[in-house]
Amino acid sequence: MEKVITKVKIENLYKHIFNLEGPRHPIKDLDNLESAREYIVAELDRYGLKSHQQEFKVDGFDETFKNIEAYTSSDSQPQIILISHYDTVANCPGANDNASGVALMLECARVLAQENKDFNVGFLCFSLEEGDPYIELHCNKKAQELGMTDELNRYTSVKIHEFMSKYTELFYSFRSKGKLYIEANQAALNEMTLKTPPIVENYFIFWKELYEELDKKGQNYYTLGSELWLKEALDKKKQIKGILCFDTIAYTNKKLNSQWFPPSMSPKILRNIFKTHKVDFDEMVGNFISIIASKGSDEIIETFSRNASNELIDLPYAYAHFNIGYEQIAKTFPDLLRSDHGPFWRENIPGLFLTDTANFRFPYYHTQADTIEKLDFGFLTQITKATIATLIDLNTN
After folding, report:
1. Same domain, 126 and 171
2. Alpha carbon of residue 120 to chain centroid
3. Quick one: angle between helices 377-396 and 10-20, nearest 10?
4. What is the DSSP string of 189-218?
5. Nearest Cα to 372, choosing from 13, 9, 104?
6. Taking the C-alpha atoms of 385, 390, 391 and 395 in order, what is their torsion angle to the nearest 10 degrees?
7. 146 close to 203: Cβ distance less than 8 angstroms
8. Which of 136, 141, 287, 380 is the most exposed place for a label (fewest CB within 10 A)?
9. How far apart are the first and last CA of the chain?
């Protein structure tokens, strides 16, 4: 293991993010999204890992979107699979979210492809993790038609801006408590002390029509690409041993109180939930990788945490093992399903979700300031080494 992890090159991690940085949004930046796909495929092919691309369509779009996959051995065998996504939200360079996850995946692929052992590892890179472009496009168009926003999707008055800012905060707080989209919308409106502007009332009439369909189908607005990939994989009876999903993983802040959690989570509660290495919840320093393990992920999380705490890697971490079913997680902790691991957990495929906690630490999350100079490449290197060591152990034990 020691010999293999020394092959991880910090310069490669930087190079990948440097080359991928820039908005990769399916509506506004489709060319950039396609360029990112071409870059990822070219790298995997250069490592000798023959890649495959799953093409899919979205209602209302002529364009074809693509998921990327590659394997160190036959894809008919059960694998541990590394997961990342390569799209971004609008107007966001996405260096951390999620070029950081893609960079880790590519460097793991490069290192393991050089080994002369029959490692059973898959690499998946999804498109459209950040949302359904059909819903986004039509909501944006309606808001502009009503005069609620301009062509840059900016609110056209301070009253609308203030109302929507408070509404959005309330809406996602209710979503985080497990409410459906329409339920969260109504609960947020009931809590509002500001009067709803008439334009916004008309907008919500249209909005509800789209989101009611998601609620009826039990669908999430997010993770479109991984949902479609997994459906096809299950139809083909593909065997998956487990997953490691990486999303927004490369930001640290060494200052006190730079790490946030929901107000209900006191340091005492956090210490009861998480097992840690070099993490102090009293100081709330954002210097660690957060790891959420699903039901049945005992071997994977034990292997990763053991390697992370090895003195050769010494990666600070905090992990919580939610050994409960998907439905209970979705109802009580829906924030834990905010990436491409969610569909896999729903199908009882064990695995880990690894993140720097995104908006609970990274102040530039989903903004134009998500750029490469914000990132900690020593930290990203540690995570990459811990991942490779974990994959080696899981394939040799």
Report:
1. no
2. 23
3. 110
4. HHH--SPPPHHHHHHHHHHHHHHHHHHHHT
5. 13
6. 140
7. yes
8. 141
9. 13
Domain, as residue range, for 358: 2-131+222-396
- Residue 300 in 3-state DSSP? helix
Query: What per-residue confidence (pLDDT) applies to 231?
Result: 95
Residue 124's SS3 state is strand
Looking at the fold, whether 31 and 141 belong to one and the same domain comes out as no
- Do the Cβ atoms of 97 and 20 come closer than 8 Å? no
The encoded tokens of residue 5 equal 């992890």
Please spell the DSSP secondary structure of 312-335, one letter per residue.
TT---EEEEE--S-HHHHHHH-GG
Q: What is the pTM of this model?
A: 0.94
Q: From 383, 387, 391, select the one nearest 100 (Cα to Cα).
A: 383
Cα 59 to chain centroid, rounded: 23
One domain, residues 62 and 11: yes
In the chain, how many domains are there? 2
Q: Which two tokens stand for residue 123?
A: 């690499």
* Residue pointed to by tokens 């691991």: 341
- Tokens read off for 124: 């998946």
Q: What pLDDT score was predicted for residue 262?
A: 78
Main-chain phi, psi angles of 156, to 5 degrees: -90, -5
Could you report the average pLDDT of every consecutive run of 10 residues in the chain (397 residues)?
A: 94 98 95 98 95 91 94 82 97 97 98 86 97 92 97 95 95 84 95 96 95 82 93 94 98 97 85 96 96 96 98 97 88 84 95 96 96 98 98 89
